[in-house]
Design goal:
The protein is α/β, with parallel strands linked by helices. About 30% of the residues lie in helices and about 25% in strands. The longest helix is centred in the last third of the chain and has 18 residues, at about 175-194. It binds inosinic acid. Inosinic acid (IMP) binds near residues 68, 149, 175 and 177.
Length: about 190
């Protein structure tokens, strides 16, 4: 089975290939000669994931999937959520976004947060959504150099290391995206065995 992932992010492609296994060939956007800016204008991660998958399905006629992630911080009423990538402006660095997050959380005792990922799959014209999450805390200082995004300040429940201190194999096993991807893999593997 061949599936296009609506992304050119090498990190995501590798992670998805590792989770989905050898029976499913994952192609990138460059592999199908798509160099478009894919629209993501919805106000939920589920909406954005589906918008990206529909764009690829409608314009390229292929089976495909797309993911979207948000960091939801309890004391900020779920912010930055779907706006996690653009929290500190139009093209912020990861450090800009973290600085804004820590500033907004200054003095707050409740540090609870979760990452949520939605994966939208369009297979044989049918739409499906798979979701994954991981709970944790936002710490007050940067720790670690692995990963990306908010990883240096996210301490997953049950661990003493931030996502940026944990090796990628461990992060992928417990992460929001890993959990959503496992559900996608289970679904696809069941179909494959039928
Ligand atoms: P995307 O939907 O995967 O592009 O994620 C949106 C934003 O959420 C990214 O720009 C990051 O800031 C943040 N994010 C997504 N996944 C992770 C993660 O695994 N660790 C830390 N931050 C993440």
């Amino acid at each position: 089975m061949k599936l296009v992932l609506a992304s050119n992010n090498k990190h995501k492609l590798e992670e998805m290939r590792a989770i989905l296994g050898n029976d499913i060939e994952i192609l990138s956007l460059s592999d199908i000669n798509c160099h478009d800016e894919i629209p993501e204008e919805q106000d939920t991660i589920e909406g954005n994931a589906m918008q990206k998958a529909r764009y690829i399905h409608d314009n390229f006629g292929v089976d495909c999937f797309a993911d979207d992630t948000g960091l939801e911080v309890e004391c900020l009423g779920g912010e930055p959520g779907v706006y996690s990538a653009r929290y500190a402006g139009e093209h912020p660095t990861f450090a800009d976004n973290i600085a804004k997050l820590l500033a907004n959380m200054e003095g707050k005792e409740n540090r609870k947060a979760r990452f949520r990922t939605a994966i939208a799959l369009i297979l044989n014209g049918e739409e499906h959504i798979f979701e994954g999450e991981v709970n944790g805390q936002i710490i007050k200082e940067f720790r670690g150099h692995n990963g990306f995004g908010y990883d240096p300040v996210f301490l997953p429940d049950g661990f003493e290391e931030t996502f940026a201190e944990l090796p990628a194999e461990i992060k992928n096993k417990i992460s929001h995206r890993g959990n959503a991807a496992k559900k996608l893999a289970e679904y696809l593997n069941k179909l494959h065995k039928k």
